[in-house]
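Problem: given the chain below (189 residues), write out its structure.
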Amino acid sequence: MILFNSCSSSDEDNSGDNLFLQINVSGKNYTSDGLYATGFGGQENCLDNGDLFLQYVGEVENSSLFIEVSFAHFENLIDYSSAQKNKILETRLKDTNSVWTSSTNGINSDFCNLNNDLSIVYEDKSTDTYLKLKPNAQSTHRITKVDFLSEDSEAKFYIVEGNFSCTFLNKNIDVPVSGNYRIKIEVLK
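Solution.
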């Protein structure tokens, strides 16, 4: 039994339109609409888990900040369809340093453990500093809906919706970040 698929009778809810990232940073709202990109990299040879793909969700940029959000998911249908592997109720939120840290064997073991997790890159442009998540502060990422959208001869496409909240640390100042998203992902057959 696969628990991560759902059906919808509403064409609007199940369409590839209305893709977005909405993010709130210290009380100020930002929105990126209509985004769809296939992502920018995968991690192959994750021995216990399966190949993963870091899907681009969206970004916000102005003169004081740059924030980029990405979503890690299984790249291949055999892994994505596995209820034992693809556990959407066990998600995390990471900062960029947690995702892109190199290891000695060329495979980032933490990246290999990502499963429907969200990565947020946060740059304070006024100090040219990449912020990290505040240690021991609560960070949440919750997938609220996954719908099958369509398929072709090479891939299946899904719409994923979710929300998140966390606190970044900028020197000694807490920077609360929260938001929600609706993205389209591609899973290879």
